[in-house]
Amino acid sequence: MSTTTSAGSRATARVPALVCAVAAVLAVAAVPVLDDRLPAAGWAPSAAAAVLVVAATVLLSRSARRAEAGRRELLAERDRLAADLAAGGRALQEATAELARTRESRDDQRVAVETAVVALARKVQASAHRIQEEAARVVQRHAADPDVLQTSMRIDHAAAQHARQAQNLVALCGRRPGQTWDDPLPFPDVVRAAAGRITAFRRVEVSGDPGLAVLGRAVEPVVHVVAELLANATQCSPPNTQVLVAIRQVQRGAVVEIDDCGVGMAPRELERVRAVASGARPVGITDLGEVPHTGLAVVGSYARALDLRVDLMESVYGGLRAVVMVPGELTTAAAAAPAALAPSVDAGWEEPAGGGARASSDADGTPGGSRDAAAGPSPDAAPALPQRRARRGAAGPAATGAQRTVPPAHDTTEPAQGRTPDQTAEEAGAWIGAFFSAGHDSTPSAVTEPNSEDT
Amino acid sequence: MPTDPPLGTPTDTYRDHPVRSYVLTGGRAHPTRNTLRPETLLCAVDDGRELPVAAGRHERALLETCRGTLSLAELAAYLRLPTSLVAVLASDLVDAGYLAIRSHAARDTPGLDLLEEVLDGLHRF
């Protein structure tokens, strides 16, 4: 706009100036000619030329003034615009800084909220583990009472689900689980451990044992991932159907496949949950909506942290199939003899010196977090259970390198508390067997048929 | 009877395990046969039959430990599991024919003459 205006004014200023200049030139050129011809009237052309020159000068100066005014106007406008631009820039800068401040404070707030949530969730989880420990202790006290065991199992089951939900919160905040395990856990036991944390654990059916175990540091995350997938599978399928879990070894690790017999999922919804479960779309605790679907978000967070590959697809059984690939870096060969079978309370005997590496405590020192590290496949550690590798009679207690760490008989049969155990199950069993078959001619008949019951 | 530590104190005697006991028994706490007592003697049936592939490590460990004759309570102590839990597992194995209950009282009572000889010996002692 300003460009066209200035161009126009420049043009209008130029036309009269041009006319004046031409007139002046003509006048000056005409002077000598006329001078020769009409000496008498020599003043007339000169006067005309002078008038023309004056007129031209006046016109020129007027147009020049006009052009100058236009130029000033334009400069002022330019300055005004530049000032506007600078002000706009300052405002933009301020707004950006404000936005950064807001974002930073929001991040700070989120971190603070997450820290608080994690701290509370860990407390809840620790108390759940404490409940489990107390339940185990009660069973130990009333070791022969099935009713006590029944009640204890129910409490244990409820507390295990409780602990899982608390650990969900921890995982959604991107933190590592509070519970840790030292021993590798064979894959079938990983699935059993996971099943123990869901409501419908009876519907889980495990098949396949490739002889692989999950390394201790990955046990808790993998168990939790499988537990969440099992929870999904049992919730999304009719209560009278089984959830089938298959374990297989693959080139790059081990795979756990979980099939449910539900109705599956619409393709778009399936795409969405696949992105969440595989970790491709991170879902934090602040992204959960009013109806929080925490399970798959938890799976996704662990998948990202541990490089697990998780995928969901349609199952041949009609429902969904969840596949978890645990990479080879997190697996090891399963030990032949189990280090420990289930939670238990050591009461009534003393731990032998050097008897197994007992885990000191877990990472955050939660009270129920004292985990057992007894005696895996390592030959240095004394086995928690008698290692049954040598054949009967092949080695006595002195001949086997492993230290015997055998508890005495239970207190209901023998008040043997505090006695140093010195017998393996094999020796004890052989001894009693020999005792009963002594004095009998036919040794094989000492063993009764399987279904006979004593009265 | 061991005394429990007061609530809230961390303990060293508790050995936690990721696999919970109710998963091992499918939630059952009562054995299929009510004749299993802590002093009941058990013995693995050595007929060359292998446990089915689906059997867990727990069943295998129990059978391995029970190669000789052991009472239920001893078995539980070796496995470091509660007696009532081992009763459920052992009972299932007895049902499946992998484990035998040894009825010591009925068949293995020494003869009267042997008892009298022992008594005489004790008197002389």
From TrEMBL, chain A:
Bias (Polar residues): 440-455
Every Histidine kinase/HSP90-like ATPase domain range: 221-327
Stretches that traverse the bilayer: 40-61
Keywords: Coiled coil, Kinase, Membrane, Phosphoprotein, Transferase, Transmembrane, Transmembrane helix
Catalytic activity, as annotated: ATP + protein L-histidine = ADP + protein N-phospho-L-histidine
Region called Disordered, residue ranges: 347-455
Keyword Nucleotidyltransferase: no
Start-end of Low complexity biased regions: 373-405
E.C. no: 2.7.13.3
Coiled coil: 64-112
Pfam families xrefs: HATPase_c (PF02518)
PANTHER family, alphabetized: SENSOR HISTIDINE KINASE TRCS, SENSOR HISTIDINE KINASE YKOH
Protein name: histidine kinase
Lineage of producing organism: Bacteria, Bacillati, Actinomycetota, Actinomycetes, Micrococcales
UniProtKB/TrEMBL annotation, chain B:
InterPro entries to which the protein is assigned, alphabetical: DUF742
Protein name: DUF742 domain-containing protein
Organism: Isoptericola peretonis
Organism ancestry: Bacteria, Bacillati, Actinomycetota, Actinomycetes, Micrococcales
